[in-house]
Design a protein that fits this description.
two-stranded antiparallel sheet; five-stranded mixed beta sheet; about 50% helix; 3 domains; single chain; Heat Shock Protein 90; alpha+beta; about 375 residues
Length: about 375
């Protein structure tokens, strides 16, 4: 500018192709690293996806899953796939969820699952040199046992005074060796939490405790469902930085695992807005789950338990993270099927806490012996 006159114009042209390519490569490398760090979880997700279409096409009465069960599976896969950084696959799963109407046929559902399966397996095979995964061995897990542990087992078996005693010794050994440290679960849930927080631009710190607690293999599917708790905590619970008032603009999520003599205690808490009972009431009444009169008579701790009901959500809009009313329904179902209990405490304006109690009475491995 010269005074009020435009004297010259400078045009700057930049080719962003190279920059976009570098960013895509960086995203891929981050995803591969996450998968390697949580390889067992990724393998189990692939195994579930790979076998799901067989269940859907089952011709045996009562074995084919309902649409609601398929929704639960897809919603959990989506959370896992997103946590691994495979966002294009997560978006594809979200698009499948949109198609799951009551009118859809099992064959059509199978087509979608087959597409997802093929795309994922193409990805795995194209990165086989890094991931070392094969669809032929998805249901097989590798267990490394120290020589000293095997030697101690052999010594105990040698001193067993009966076959029953020897079998009991082996059963205890198998249970002990297949236990997983809670640290693996806590690390993965932290990763999933931070992934959602970045996507929603809600900064968050994750505090964990109980990493050394040994958790039984029998509860693995249940623990897998906990990804919905952390995703919902960020999406539903935590406010955006500018909405947190006098609270720290960085939200806080705490995950604790405790071992008691007869139970495991898992706590999930956030310092967000708490459960919006007004929105929850609207959703509950719209779905005719109770009358307004009955709702008004309920104590708040009873009202908040409606968040675990199928298709109930406090969000008006469905996103690729939440809003379908499926995730918490799945968590509740898993906890109850395991003989556990789940309680919610919501403090409006200050946060929500989920208390989960699981019995230590788990199934022992079936060991066959020939005499």
């Amino acid at each position: 500018m010269k005074g009020e006159t435009v004297e010259s114009v400078l045009y700057s042209l930049n080719d962003v192709t190279k920059a976009d390519k570098i960013e895509a490569e960086n995203q891929l490398n981050r995803a591969l690293l996450r998968i390697i760090q949580n390889k067992d979880r990724f393998r189990r997700v692939l195994a579930a996806i790979y076998s799901c279409d067989e269940k859907i096409l089952s011709r045996t009465p009562g074995e084919a899953p309902t649409i609601q069960q398929v929704r639960r599976e897809l919603h959990t896969w989506k959370g896992d796939i997103a946590a691994f950084g495979l966002h294009s696959f997560a978006e594809f799963i979200h698009s499948i969820e949109d198609e799951l109407t009551p009118e859809i046929t099992p064959a059509r559902v199978h087509e979608y699952i087959l597409l997802l399966k093929n795309r994922l397996m193409d990805f795995v095979e194209s990165h086989h040199d890094v991931l070392k995964l094969s669809k032929l061995y998805l249901n097989e897990a590798t267990l490394s046992i120290p020589d000293t542990a095997l030697h101690n087992l052999w010594t105990k078996i040698s001193h067993a005074n009966s076959l029953a005693h020897a079998l009991h010794t082996v059963e205890e050994f198998v249970i002990e060796q297949t236990m997983q440290k809670a640290g693996d679960l806590l690390s993965y849930l932290s990763l999933a939490t931070l992934d959602v927080s970045r996507k929603l631009k809600k900064p968050v710190t994750v505090q964990t405790s109980g990493a050394d607690v040994a958790l039984p293999h029998d509860y693995r599917e249940l623990f897998d469902s906990f990804i919905h708790l952390v995703r919902n905590a960020v999406d539903h619970g935590l406010e955006a930085p500018g909405e947190r008032g006098k609270k720290d603009p960085v939200g806080k999520i705490c995950i604790e695992v405790r071992s008691r003599p007869d139970s495991y205690q898992i706590l999930f808490s956030d310092d967000g807005r708490g459960v919006d009972l007004a929105r929850l009431k609207t959703s509950v009444l719209n779905k005719n789950l109770c009358t307004e009169s009955d709702w008004n008579k309920m104590p708040d701790e009873e009202k908040v338990m409606f968040i675990f009901r199928s298709n109930v959500s406090t969000k008006d809009v469905v996103t690729d993270i939440s809003g379908r009313g499926i995730g918490l329904d799945y968590v509740y179902s898993c906890v109850k099927n395991a003989g556990g209990n789940i309680v919610v405490e919501s403090n409006p304006g200050f946060g929500t806490c989920f208390y989960i109690s699981l019995p230590k009475l788990v199934m022992k491995p079936k060991i066959l012996a020939a005499v």
